[in-house]
Amino acid sequence: MSQPVVLADPAHKPSRKAPLVWAVSAAIPWSLAAIAQVVWLAAEPGPWWGHVLAAVGTVVGIAVFVGVVPVWRYRVHRWDVDDRAVYTRTGWLTQERRIAPISRVQTVDTERGPLDRLFGLATVTVTTASSAGAVRIVALDADVADRLVAQLTDVAALGAEDAT
Amino acid sequence: MSRPEKAGTPAEARWLRLSPLMLLVHPVHEVGRQIPVLVGAVVLGSATGNPIYAVLALVLTVVVGLARWFTTSYRIGPGDVQLRTGILQRKVLSLPRNRIRSVSTEARLLHRLFGLAVVRVSTGQEGRGDTEFALDGIEARRVPELRAELLAESLAGDEEQPAPGRVLARWAPSWLRYAPLSSAGLLTVAAALGIAAQTGLVAVLEDSEIGAFGAATVARFGVLGVVAIVAAGLIAAAVLASVLQSLLNYANLELRRDAEVLHLRHGLLRVREQTFDMRRLRGGTLREPLLARAIGGAQLDAVMTGVGGTGEASMLLPLCPRTTAEAVLDDLIGRPEVVHGPLSGHGPAATRRRWTRALALPVLAAVVLAVAAAPLWVWPLWAVFTAGCALLAHDRSRSLGHRVGDGWLVARAGSLERRRDCIEAAGIIGWTVRQTFMQRRAGVATLIAATAAGAKSYRILDVPADLAWSVAAQTTGWVADTTWARSGSGLR
Questions:
Q1: In contact, A67 and A39? CB cutoff 8 Å
Q2: Which chain B residues are within 8 Å of A164, Cβ to Cβ?
Q3: Which numeric CATH code is attached to B10-167?
Q4: A79-156 has which fold?
Q5: Which residues lie in coiled coils (chain B) (predicted)?
Q6: Which residues in chain A touch residue B305, judged by CB atoms under 8 angstroms apart?
Q7: B467 touching A, CB under 8 A?
Q8: Per-residue pLDDT reduced to its tens digit, B278-296
Q9: Pair B454, B301: CB distance under 8 Å
Q10: CB distance B452–A128 less than 8 Å?
Q11: Which of B189, B253, B416, B465 would you label with A139, given CA atoms 20 to 30 Å apart?
């Protein structure tokens, strides 16, 4: 048996705006739910306990998913790249650390959803030949993402293997 | 016209037609496919008193079947193979020849009657339906030649057709004893019963003599007796069905290895033949369903780039004696210690998690039963259920294990279906260490190896958290060479 190996955490955090974007994107569906409840109350004042139950559910949901989860995720999310591998840590309740060797990278994509564009963020996805091995670095500042993509494509071009 | 000839000069490949015998096969298959429409036409015909609809529909179906032959052609060019199909909407499908991963053939009853076979060309992109490259109707004696031609590019250097290689495994009647122990047989019976119930067979039965007989039997043996009789009958039917299915599917199975190519051939009525490129083999999975394991049975799947991880496509051996499956895997990868070697267990935390999971349901059931003041006779049932769960937990924790080194990763887990995944380190192109909240508290993690082969991801369940990266680093060296790797025990 060789020596035990431990991987230190990746160094870089996502953009400072990341928690805000995550909170906003969670707030949109939850506010729709809240509106639906108000409409329900107006249309059918029905049994009071039904409304109370739904309201409590919504308030707790908003508190958790808009208030707590974005901050939690921001504390967990990390990414890093060296000349051999891409390495990320993601998640909140279930956390994942994922590493992929750059020599096996097939594509590097940048993705910017409507909210991302509004806040100037981008997500970089690094795919390998395995559908289970894609590494996603979410919520980067756009300029950081651009630099990262340039760096990755630069390094990846060196390895000219089949990558499977 | 028209026996398909050997493809012309490489520079100017000609469009070829499929076997003209398909003019007889296509209409029959087309009629089979359009049965709902034809039945509709007959109903319409008899409802309007005008049988012309039925005749028209039949003629149209046959014409469409004939037209399929006239509108389908293929071409084997220097760089790619092309298939032109479609009656109204023309479509050309082309595959680069160097991307061809496997060529499989299949012959249904009618095909075999005329000496034909369907040749499927796969690039591993898992084409389904429309995008599938299938040459439906090639004369069987032309198949070996065509196969060699199609694979020539990807199996270069293998063209001189070496002497037929070694047979790795051949079906034996004794394999049939494992057949009822897979779950497929029971499912078949359940499906048949479901269909029977849907078509109103049950309602008919109720009013019939059998129904009366049933009522009389209930009167004589009591409800419990009838339930026992019905259960025994069901089990007998399931056993029969699965044995029959296994016999039809796998009798005369032969797994042969010619140097770098693996040939698998099986089936009594519908003969299937599959070719695997050994250079794309990244390992194998031994699977042992619980009951089959009890009498020493196992099945073998190939882990291969460009071939899906489960089901027919990757199957090398159906349920057969465990020794046979292990010997074949050993022969394929040439690593006896990977196939047979002992595994290191995952420690007390993983075992504890198996037990808490298995016993959660019985405990919950006990609480519910106690609160609901269930009748006394329920409790023995609960005890049996709990004992079953405990056995499951024990077996599951005993199964857990992994093995690294020599460029291979072995992971074993499961009880109802225990699997031993043997993956070549060179095929692993990424790692994930996943921890749920409970796993973090228990200090364990799930290590997932990503590959381009087979099921794409292979997991080692509940490995001690501080060992996870060591396993990864020992398997694939590059993990230890990254800037984040810290060796020794100084950290954390």
A1: no
A2: 305, 427, 429, 452-453
A3: 2.30.29
A4: PH-domain like (2.30.29)
A5: none
A6: 129, 164
A7: yes
A8: 888 999 999 998 888 989 9
A9: yes
A10: yes
A11: B465
